[in-house]
Automatic annotation (TrEMBL):
<dbReference type="Pfam" id="PF22649">
    <property type="entry name" value="Cgl0159"/>
</dbReference>
<dbReference type="InterPro" id="IPR054574">
    <property type="entry name" value="Cgl0159_dom"/>
</dbReference>
<protein>
    <submittedName>
        <fullName>Deoxyribose-phosphate aldolase</fullName>
    </submittedName>
</protein>
<feature type="domain" description="Cgl0159-like">
    <location>
        <begin position="39"/>
        <end position="292"/>
    </location>
</feature>
<dbReference type="InterPro" id="IPR013785">
    <property type="entry name" value="Aldolase_TIM"/>
</dbReference>
Length: 295
């Protein structure tokens, strides 16, 4: 069985009759370096569903149709300049069987215990990929989310688990992308503080996790005031990728913020999900091509 022999409609049958096909596809996948000569990365993110975050815009269940999501991902990964994907095990294994991960950078999503809207959202235990899973599946890196609320004791558990994950990835010489936020609950919902001082503080905390930062990257939002990004990124020498988040309203303005931040010395690329996979105009290929053009 070759990766191209499986279609989306056949995935359930393959999973039912030949679950070993996933490991076989992982073993033969053609890999590439994390970064190429231009030291830039364009990663498509699809790790939202496993946190129960299925909404895009006004549609609370936009990402609930797995076949539709996979079609969008396969299209995005086929576009020139797209380096790879960030997702949880279920989605990455579907993409493996579809043959969509050949010569791509694959990032496994690690902590998904902090479900969106849950009372334990900030006690974000590691229920996704472990370092040993990423190594076994021959994936290229991991990603963890680090939301810190000084008023929520669950953040301490997340911090400790994140530090140990950094250690376990570094022991295997596997990069780990840390996505830090200073967070707080506003009317019962977790909100991330995107002010310059808050993002700088999150950078400082994330950079110091674990026994070594040699394999740590940062995945950062663009600050509320885009002009703050220059001094915020001076908080650490670690390489940075920008997260996209969901784009509301002024799409061109968002692109301009990304473009400006991408010119900073430590910024190495973009990791963008819903705004590319479910763009306002509906054209996934055009949205992806626009983002690639910013690099």
């Amino acid at each position: 069985m070759t990766p191209s022999s499986v279609s989306i409609s056949e995935l359930a049958d393959v999973r039912t009759r030949h679950p070993e096909a996933i490991a076989e596809a992982a073993a033969r996948r053609a890999r590439r370096p994390l970064v190429d000569a231009n030291q830039r990365l364009m990663i498509v993110a699809a790790d939202h569903p496993a946190r129960g975050a299925l909404g895009v815009g006004g549609d609370e269940l936009a990402m609930a149709n797995r076949a539709d999501l996979l079609e969008r991902l396969v299209l995005a990964l086929s576009r020139p300049g797209v380096d790879g994907v960030l997702a949880t095990a279920d989605i990455l294994e579907d993409l493996l069987l579809l043959g969509a991960l050949e010569h791509k950078v694959v990032l496994g999503s690690m902590n998904r215990g902090g479900l969106a809207g849950a009372s334990f959202e900030l006690d974000d235990r590691f229920t996704g990929h472990r370092a040993e899973d990423i190594e076994r599946m021959r994936f290229d890196a991991g990603k963890l989310l680090l939301r810190i609320d000084y008023d929520d004791p669950g953040s301490l558990h997340t911090l400790y688990s994140a530090a140990r994950a950094v250690d376990e990835m570094a022991a295997r010489r596997l990069p780990v992308f840390v996505e830090p936020f200073m967070s707080r609950r506003v009317e019962g919902k977790v909100a991330n503080d995107l002010s310059g001082p808050a993002v700088a503080r999150s950078v400082a905390i994330a950079s110091g996790l674990g026994g070594t930062s040699a394999y740590t990257w940062l995945k950062l939002p663009v600050t509320e005031d885009p002009d703050d990004m220059a001094w915020v990124c001076e908080t650490s020498t670690l390489p940075v990728v920008l997260l996209g988040g969901e784009v509301h309203g002024d799409q061109e303005g968002t692109y301009e913020k990304w473009r400006k931040a991408l010119s900073l010395p430590t910024v190495r690329g973009l990791v963008v999900g819903r705004s590319l996979l479910y763009p306002a105009g509906g054209d996934v290929g055009a949205a992806v091509d626009t983002a690639v053009g910013l690099l």
